Known about the structure:
With 353 residues, the chain is α/β, with parallel strands linked by helices. The chain has 7 helices and 18 strands. The strands form 4 sheets. It has a 6-stranded antiparallel beta barrel with strand order 12-16-15-14-17-18. The chain has a 5-stranded parallel sheet with strand order 3-2-1-4-7, with helices on both faces. The chain has a 4-stranded mixed sheet with strand order 9-8-11-10, with no helix packed on it. Strand 10 and strand 11 (263-267) form a beta hairpin. Helix 1 packs across helix 6 (167-176), helix 3 (67-83) runs antiparallel to helix 4 and helix 3 (67-83) crosses helix 7. The longest helix is centred in the first third of the chain and has 20 residues, at 90-109. The radius of gyration is 22 Å and the shape is globular. The model has no long low-confidence stretch (mean pLDDT 95).
Amino acid sequence: xxxxxxxxxxxxxxxxxxxxxxxxxxxxxxxxxxxxxxxxxxxxxxxxxxxxxxxxxxxxxxxxxxxxxxxxxxxxxxxxxxxxxxxxxxxxxxxxxxxxxxxxxxxxxxxxxxxxxxxxxxxxxxxxxxxxxxxxxxxxxxxxxxxxxxxxxxxxxxxxxxxxxxxxxxxxxxxxxxxxxxxxxxxxxxxxxxxxxxxxxxxxxxxxxxxxxxxxxxxxxxxxxxxxxxxxxxxxxxxxxxxxxxxxxxxxxxxxxxxxxxxxxxxxxxxxxxxxxxxxxxxxxxxxxxxxxxxxxxxxxxxxxxxxxxxxxxxxxxxxxxxxxxxxxxxxxxxxxxxxxxxxxxxxxxxxx
Length: 353
């Protein structure tokens, strides 16, 4: 019997299960691939229920233990980033290094040439760019932003069956097929942080890894007026308003963090406004010579793309926004789009102004 040619990464959630269902309904030979990223107690292990769902769809299930790699490539950098006063984006690192890195490699060892996932994103042949990563039809769930660090040669092996579906259509499709979703709850923002409580998680992980987090220090207004003492710069991010613990005549926001002097700068809403940023090395998905004149940049997942001028300097992106935007943060993604929603490049932000 010839091996199937496409693998489907299944987490246990409704999206990845729908991706497998879509391929089987289209008559595609496929097998399922479940990556173990975290230690899971037996009572919460989705594998037994996944085996039943995959069997109902006639798709073999293979389980790959990637816990050590996930810890080294995603969790450890997450903790180190906070210690370095950055706001990390672990999903982007996971997509590039784990899902379309090691999990794709595992799919190949089982005879597949492509890996399908439950991401809401699209791939298509563009008349000028060639293969193009594009926003999904459901803009509210679009995940092209989180895929912008995946190298082009890896994206060429990807398949996104949910590109045209809305979240509601995904749920309906799975329910109508009579499938039981092993993990029916909506996935949390960061899969490895319990209840999305990142501060206690980072503190515990930093202590276990010998990573030093910052100490308390002064909270200053732009004019140098001291308003109080912060709890450690790693606990704050640019643009943050809630949780500052400062009583003032108007709401205050985090304007910046200064490692030298251990200073947290805060100010009113009018003092916010990001006009430019520089990134680290960019992942170029379309040759810059083919980029259109009008570009748009997305600086946070929940932000809409903003018109910008983008210059490539020594492999990095120098981005000048045409209008000031609510600030992003070092460690977050800057993703360059064209006017049709095609991803041209992605990189991690290093500095802002």
